[in-house]
Amino acid sequence: MPQFEYFVILAEMRTGSNLLEAYLNESPAIRCEGEAFNPAFVAYPKDDDLHGFSRAARDADPLALLATFRAQDRLAGFRYFHDHDPRVFEPFMRDPRCAKIVLTRNPVDSYVSLKIARATQQWRLGDVKNKRAAQVVFDPAEFAEHVAQLQGFQIRVQQLLQTTGQTAFHIGYEDIKDLDVINGLLAWLGIGQPLENAPRKLKRQNPEPLEEKLVNPEAVSEGIARLDRFNLARTPSFEPRQPPPLWAFRACRNLPLVYAPIPGGNERAVFAWMAMADGGAMRDLLSDFTPAGWRDWQRSHPRHIAFTVLRHPLERAHDVFVHQVVLGNRSNVRSFIERVHGAALPEDEAGARALSPDAHRQGFLGFLDFVRANLAGQTALPTRPVWASQTRLIEAMVAQCPVHRMLRADQLSRELPAMAGELGHDLPPFDPALRDPALSLAAIHDRALEVAGRAAYGRDYEMLGFGDWAAE
């Protein structure tokens, strides 16, 4: 049995957290102390002090208040909702000494209950004679947003529990009044003395059937139909996350401009343009940032613009295939293509230029098949940034550098100089400096390549808005 020093009830409004708190507080060994980190108040709406902390003192140092829960004579805890102070969330979630109680309720019931509470301004019911009633309108779009909010918080909780190797006690709204369940929770918390009686102070506020609470009960079906409860529409992704590529950033010394390159693009042409704009050489651009050095640059350029460049997935993949596999040193990828697809690849530029269109197409199809399998975790080779999806790479870079501009590679001649207005500085024209490729995508492009490209980089096509390459 784990030795807990404090606890948290992870819940949402109208999930029964007041009632669960009342049950737990029937035990002399426990004290649940309200919504300790609610931004609007401390613990309870009419209170402004908890463990010696006023609202101002708590807001100034929420972790200090969190530490006081471990020092109480009884097992102390609090209720935490998704919109409470985010500064304490990871500290208590990562602390194995903190017991996690996850309280959930049918989202239709919680949504309707929330609407009624807002309409009547009655958030707790102690005496039935004081009950306020109201019928409310069910808004399908608002309900969908309500569910997304609940699910988002539950996913965060679940992920931290899994990654830290912890377990939680899960309890549903309907189980709160079951003394056997409550006593099971007490035993899990390490409280040996079970409850014999339920609290009498709180009553269920809206026991009527759902239809009687709504002005438009027929809208519930539409609201539920909007939901994708099983994530069937989600594009699955097993591609591993990439680390933040801080080392790859290039920043100007003078201009407040930083480029977060996506590997597999025409980076050197962009570096040359940045150096010209900054009045120096490419070697003068700042790179190989440490976290401290990157923060220093941001502070010294508070109004900076960060940009990256997107390429069509098929064009980017073809360049990687040519320069990294055919003309480069990716021998392990070459071996996969030759072994699985029976394609004999040339080993130098002369051989590449002499490659027949059919052999070229077969080799590139093999590479796209390798990428599809690699990003799905089906090969023994690690996923390299140069062929990782642009979507994953952008997710990694924004952890260190929120990107203000995502420019298209085929529009750089217009979009790079156009940033002059925001930078307040004249910018030179951009020269893509393209060279004659050893192998041309245009020479082999067909529908089969488009299908293979989408199979490999489906999220890039979908999330970054790319169409077929021929139309770009």
- Count of discrete domains: 2
**How is the biggest beta sheet arranged?**
5 strands, parallel
SS-derived structural category = alpha/beta
Helix content: 40-55%
- Terminal CA distance reads 61 Å
Strand content: 5-15%
| Spatial order of the strands forming the largest sheet | 2-3-1-4-5
What sort of overall outline do the alpha carbons produce when their principal axes are compared?
elongated
Task: Please provide a written account of the structure.
- The chain is an alpha/beta fold and 472 residues long.
- The protein has 20 helices and nine strands.
- The strands form two sheets. The chain has a five-stranded parallel β-sheet with strand order 2-3-1-4-5, with helices on one face. The protein has a four-stranded mixed β-sheet with strand order 6-7-8-9, with helices on one face.
- It is elongated.
- Mean pLDDT is 88; it is low at 125-130.
Give me a quick take on this structure.
The chain is α/β, with parallel strands linked by helices and 472 residues long. The protein has helices at residues 17-24, 55-60, 62-68, 89-93, 107-120, 140-163, 179-189, 210-213, 219-225, 267-278, 291-300, 313-326, 331-341, 349-353, 357-375, 390-397, 412-415, 420-423, 447-456, 458-464, and strands spanning 6-10, 30-32, 75-80, 98-104, 169-172, 250-251, 257-259, 305-310, 405-408.
